[in-house]
Amino acid sequence: MYDRILIPTDGSETAELAVERALAIAERFDSTVDTLFVVDTDALELSLGTEQVDRVRSGRFGEMDELEATAREATDHVVEAGRERDVDVSAHFRAGQPHKVIADVAEDHDVDLVVMGSHGRSGVRRVLLGSVTENVLRSTHRPVMVVDERGEDD
Ligand code: ATP
Ligand code: MN
To answer: Which residues form the UspA domain (predicted)?
Structure first.
């Protein structure tokens, strides 16, 4: 039923909660897990020029060490947590609008379940859902499980 699970992560604490939940499911169902970090090119374009953004789009982070480190840390965490549970995890990096890329990757990899956090790095907690999660829910027909730290009591 859950042969293939996608865990989009921005490395936030809430995303890491989603990682735990997703891996527990993967362990139970012997699922293959993909994790994905999307470089938000719209946000980048505001703070940098188009030239830098084109570099990122073509997979070259260039001088953007900080961004690359964030991306790697976020996905390494999932790979490592998977290893501890004997779950195979492949890491993916893409550039674009996060919710669109997440929905596209869910299609391309034919995933049975997307597991993500209710909030992320820039989270305003009084908002029920972060915009990436909200837009993923509006962009895909695949099942999405949203993990909210405020619903965690264990
Ligand atoms: P907002 O970005 O709307 O200001 P936020 O940062 O609190 O609010 P989201 O960005 O929607 O909330 O994050 C919710 C979840 O979406 C995260 O826990 C993570 O699972 C996923 N996510 C967010 N950004 C990315 C990204 N760039 N790449 C992959 N997954 C992401
Ligand atoms: Mn965000």
So the answer is: 1-147
